[in-house]
Amino acid sequence: MVNFSLEGKIALVTGASYGIGFAIATGFAQAGATIVFNDIKQELVDKGLAAYKELGINAHGYVCDVTDEKAVNAFIAQIEKEIGTIDILVNNAGIIKRIPMCEMSAAEFRQVIDVDLNAPFIVSKAVIPGMIKKGHGKIINICSMMSELGRETVSAYAAAKGGLKMLTRNIASEYGEYNIQCNGIGPGYIATPQTAPLREKQPDGTPHPFDSFIIAKTPAARWGTPEDLMGPAIFLASDASNFVNGHVLYVDGGILAYIGKQPK
Ligand code: NAP
Ligand code: GCO
């Protein structure tokens, strides 16, 4: 019997008070996992805890900035002491800055790289020793369409997500012999707070041009929802994917396969 269950597993999903991380953590809980998550602000951790409770999930929430290596190491040690060794890590926390490259400061570029690429390195490095001791582990990095494609104004984000794809492959290569699988999920365009500015109605009530653009570029002709990512994440977190390693699973409604709707 193929095992998709996460019973008895401890899953850390970073930045999971809401959005994609919250949906993935909810799916993991439905599959039997114990949920641990973090956010930068206590008020968001509290909001997240309440939201999980509303779904009958007793999650463990902590304040931790994933870019702060010292704080992350203390955070992981605290989880291992209070809850147990982490079986599943989802590097979900992320930011984006939509600024034309020549108008973007180096500090702004570095900030995106710090959260979207350096932090997955920092958190994975803190979690892997426990996984080695335990004899198994699952690391899932939340990549992006921008791990494969560029577009105007997202240079830092695309560089980070392209790097995250290669960090995924490198962790898979370096730690596969310890029965640790590291894969990526590449969501398409998903309706969350991060993409809200791209979906805002125009003052005259017509759709945002980017909204129409994505609908034309997606064979499914719709934006994805965070719930669309739950099943793929459970698969990559479960024993059902123990021979899948270094792979980025694109959950994009077919965007990467499609040239885009031909103009009528
Ligand atoms: P979101 O709604 O902006 O949520 C991002 C989460 O990350 C928030 O909880 C945020 O907390 C947290 N976070 C940001 N910086 C952090 C830090 N330094 N330390 C700890 N937590 C931090 O984003 P989303 O749409 O759910 O996206 C989640 C992930 O999926 C990101 O990696 C994103 O790049 C990726 N992704 C999104 C899409 C999409 O279309 N939405 C598509 C592909 C990939 P605060 O609220 O406190 O900042
Ligand atoms: C953007 C969007 C995208 C999505 C996602 C697509 O401005 O282009 O925010 O980057 O967030 O990464 O997979």
From TrEMBL:
The keyword Acyltransferase does not apply. Keywords: Oxidoreductase. GO terms for molecular function: gluconate 5-dehydrogenase activity. Its EC number is 1.1.1.69. PROSITE patterns: ADH_SHORT. InterPro entries: NAD(P)-bd_dom_sf, Sc_DH/Rdtase_CS, SDR_fam. The keyword Oxidoreductase applies. NCBIfam families: PRK07097.1. Belongs to the short-chain dehydrogenases/reductases (SDR) family. This is Gluconate 5-dehydrogenase.
